[in-house]
Design goal:
Helix content is 32%, strand content 19%. By secondary structure, the protein is an alpha/beta fold.
Length: 375
C-alpha cells in the first residue's frame, strides 16, 4: 500500500504512522520532501550513528551521518520525525528531520555544561517519583522546571503507591507534591495492583509522552503496565535507599495499545537545568506573582523593604524551603546561561562587583569609617 502525502486524498488519520503521532501538521511539513520521493518516519531509537525509524512499511535501520552536527542540541533524537531515503538504498540515510514542536533538554554533567536533548515532539513530560523512599521535593521542582521549559505538559506520577498502606498518609504525600507543583496533575499509581494505571493511560492516550525520573523510580515497571506487555526489563531495587541499576539503557519510543506514544528513558543521576528560566518561573508561579507586589521591581527578596515575598514567608503562607529552592534554581540556571552568553556574563560580574562594593561600604559604616573608602 502506498500513500502520497502531498495528495488531498491521503488522510493523516488513516496513515500507518498515525499510531506514532502523525497528523495534518506533520503532513504539511513533510509535503516538500514527499515531492522529492523521500519518506517519513518517527525515530524510535538512536544508537551509535544509526537509528531505528518507524515507517509506513515497518521499522527500518537508517544511518544518521547527515544529521550529526557539532551542536549537541541539533543531533537527531528519539521522537524526531525523520526524512528518509526511499526503500532500496544500502545504507539508507536520514536526510533531515522536521522542525521540532517541543524538546526536553537538560545540562550535561561535563565541565562544559553542554545541553543534551533527551526526547523531541512531546505532549506530556511524566515525572515518575517513587513512594518507596522519602520524597525529595527539591528534585521534583527541578524536573518540573525542565518539563515546563520543554513545551510539554508536566505530569507527576507517584509510583509504588501500594507500599503506602495508610490511605491518609498517601493523601498527605499527594497533597505535599501538589503544593510543590502548582497547576500540575498528580497521580498516585501502583503498577503492582493496577491502581491509577487506567486513569494514567486515558490521560496519555492522545499525543507523545516521555517518562522521566531517577533510577529506581519504577519507570520500567510503569512502562510495562502502560504498554500491556513485559517490554522493559525490570531489575530489583535496593531496599536501603530505593536505588538500583539502570534498567533502561537507551531512549525507546513505543506506541501504546490504548493510543498515544511513550518514550522511556534511562534513570537520570543528574538533572541539570539548561536555559530554563521560564520553566523555573512556572514551577514557582506563586513566588513570581508575589514578586509583582514588591515595592522595587528588581527586588531580590533578601532584605529589601516592602518585599511581598519575604512578608509571605513571615506570615507562613510561603515556606522557607520553597523560597530557597527558587533562589537555588535561578542561580544555577543563570550560571549555565552565562557560560554561553557573554553579555549576561558581563551583567553578572557587574552585579557581583556592585554587591561587593555595597558590602564593603556597610562594613566600613559599622566600623565608623567613611562609606566606600578602604582604610
Amino acid at each position: 500500500m502506498s500513500f502520497s502525502l502531498a495528495s488531498p486524498e491521503a488522510s493523516s488519520a488513516s496513515h500507518p504512522l498515525a499510531p506514532y503521532g502523525w497528523d495534518e501538521g506533520w503532513e504539511a511539513e513533510f509535503a516538500p520532501y514527499a515531492r522529492q520521493g523521500l519518506v517519513p518516519g518517527r525515530v524510535v531509537r538512536v544508537d551509535r550513528g544509526q537509528c531505528d525509524v518507524a515507517t509506513a512499511g515497518g521499522v527500518v535501520r537508517a544511518d544518521t551521518a547527515f544529521v550529526t552536527p557539532h551542536d549537541p542540541l541539533r543531533v537527531i533524537c528519539t521522537g524526531d520525525w525523520a526524512v528518509l531515503d526511499p526503500a532500496g538504498g544500502d545504507p539508507r540515510f536520514v536526510r533531515e528531520y522536521l522542525p521540532r514542536r517541543t524538546a526536553f533538554v537538560r545540562s550535561t554533567s561535563s565541565l562544559r555544561s553542554e545541553g543534551q536533548i533527551l526526547a523531541a515532539n512531546l505532549d506530556h513530560a511524566i515525572i515518575a517519583v517513587s513512594l518507596a523512599v522519602e520524597l525529595d521535593l527539591g528534585r521534583i521542582e527541578r524536573f518540573l522546571a525542565l518539563g515546563w521549559e520543554s513545551g510539554a505538559l508536566p505530569l507527576i506520577v507517584l509510583t509504588k503507591a501500594d507500599l503506602v498502606a495508610d490511605p491518609a498518609v498517601l493523601g498527605h504525600l499527594v497533597d505535599d507534591v501538589r503544593t510543590t507543583a502548582p497547576g500540575v496533575q498528580v497521580l498516585a499509581v501502583s503498577a503492582a495492583t493496577g491502581e491509577g494505571v487506567e486513569v494514567l493511560s486515558a490521560v496519555l492516550s492522545a499525543g507523545t509522552s516521555v517518562l522521566l525520573g531517577v533510577s529506581g523510580a519504577g519507570k520500567s515497571t510503569l512502562a510495562n503496565a502502560l504498554l500491556g506487555d513485559e517490554v522493559m526489563e525490570v531489575r530489583a531495587i535496593r531496599e536501603v535507599d530505593g536505588k538500583g541499576r539502570h534498567t533502561t539503557t537507551t531512549r525507546n519510543l513505543l506506541a501504546m495499545p490504548g493510543g498515544g506514544v511513550l518514550i522511556d528513558t534511562p534513570g537520570l543521576r543528574g538533572v541539570g537545568l539548561w536555559d530554563a528560566e521560564t520553566g523555573v518561573g512556572q514551577v514557582f508561579s506563586e513566588i513570581e506573582e508575589l514578586a509583582e507586589r514588591c515595592r522595587f521591581h528588581d527586588c531580590a527578596h533578601v532584605s529589601e523593604p516592602g518585599c511581598a515575598v519575604l512578608a509571605s514567608v513571615e506570615d507562613g503562607s510561603l515556606s522557607v524551603r520553597r523560597l530557597e529552592s527558587y533562589r537555588k534554581l535561578l542561580r544555577e540556571n543563570q550560571r549555565i546561561v552565562a557560560k554561553t552568553d557573554a553579555r549576561l556574563r558581563g551583567e553578572i560580574r557587574r552585579e557581583w562587583k556592585r554587591k561587593g562594593a555595597e558590602g564593603r561600604a556597610a562594613m566600613e559604616a559599622k566600623r565608623g569609617g567613611a562609606p566606600g573608602r578602604m582604610r
